[in-house]
Amino acid sequence: MPDRVLSGMQPSGRLHLGNFLGALDNWQRLQETHECFFFVADWHALSTNYADTSQVKTFTYEVLIDWLAAGIDPERSTVFVQSHVPEHAILYLLFSMMTPIPWLERNPTYKEKQEYLTDRDLSTYGFLGYPVLQAADILLYKPDAVPVGKDQLPHLELTREIARRFNSLYQPVFPEPKELLTSFPKVLGTDGKKMSKSYGNTINLSDQEPVVRQKLKTMVTDPARVKRTDPGNPDICPVFDFHRIFSPLPIIDQVNQECRTAEIGCVQCKAFAAGAIVARLAPLWETRAALEAHPKRIEDVIHHGCQKASRVAHDTLEEAKKAMKI
Ligand code: TRP
Ligand code: SF4
To answer: Which CATH code fits 4-187+295-324?
Structure first.
C-alpha cells in the first residue's frame, strides 16, 4: 500500500496562484505516489465566520471546482466535505474530553488570529477548540503524513500530542502523522505584498485571460525603475518572481539581463509574464468550463468522496470507542 496523506483547506472563496503553488500543485503531484484524502474544512470556517455563514456553502463549491480544475482527480483521490462526514464531530467531542485547555491557549494561531481579526468576537469555545477539530480530521484517516504549510505545524504538533494522550490513556489507536512540508516559490500579489484574498491583490485560478493581463499591467515593479530608460533590478521585482515560476528559461534569462540594462521595458516584460501565466492556467480554465457545464458531476464527486471517507472514518471511530469502552 502506498503511504496515505490527508490534507484540508478552509473554504474562503476562489483560490489564487498563491494557494495553487503553496498547496494544490503539490497535492496534484502527490496523487502519483500516495493514497490521498483531500477535504474542504467547512466547519472550521465557522470558527471565524459563525456570525455570517452566508458564504460558507458557496465557497465550499468554489473551492472544490478549483481543486478539480487544478487536476485533483476524484478517481484517484478521495475528495470530500468535512460536514458531510459526521464522524469528524464525534471524534472531536471525544478528543475535547481529554485535551487540556492550556495546550490550546498556548497555540500560537489562537492569539495571532484574535489580534488580527479584530472585527469579530473570537473568544468562543469553538475557536479555542479549532485544533482539536483538526486533530479529529486528521486522525480519523490515520495518515502517514499531512502536507501543510509552515503555519500549520503547531496544529500538527497538537494532533500528535492528542494522539499520544489518547493512546496512553486507553489503547494505541492513532499513529502519529508526520508533516510533509513542501518548499514552494513565493508569489507576491499585484501590490507587491504577500498574495492574499484579504489584501485584494490576488490573481485567481478562475481569472480569464483579459483579467490576468490587466492585473499584470497594474502590478508594481522595481520601484526605482520610474522611467523606461531607468535600469531595473529583477531581484526585487515581484513580476520577475512570476517569470521564475512560469516562464521558459530563455525568457527568464532575457528579462534578467535586459531589465538591468533597460533594454526591455516593464510593459513588454509584464506581457511576457502574463502570457506565461495564461499558458499555465489555460488547461484549468478548460476543465472548469467542462465542470460548470455539468453541475451534476460535482455533486457526484462529493457524494462518492464522502461515502469513501465515511467508511474509513466510521471504522476508526468504532476502534476509538472500543478503546474507550463506550
Ligand atoms: N487549519 C487548516 C488551514 O487553515 C485547514 C485544516 C483543517 C486542515 N483541518 C485540516 C489541514 C486537517 C490539514 C489537515 O489551512
Ligand atoms: Fe520588473 Fe520586468 Fe520591469 Fe524589470 S522589466 S522591473 S523585471 S517588470
So the answer is: 3.40.50.620
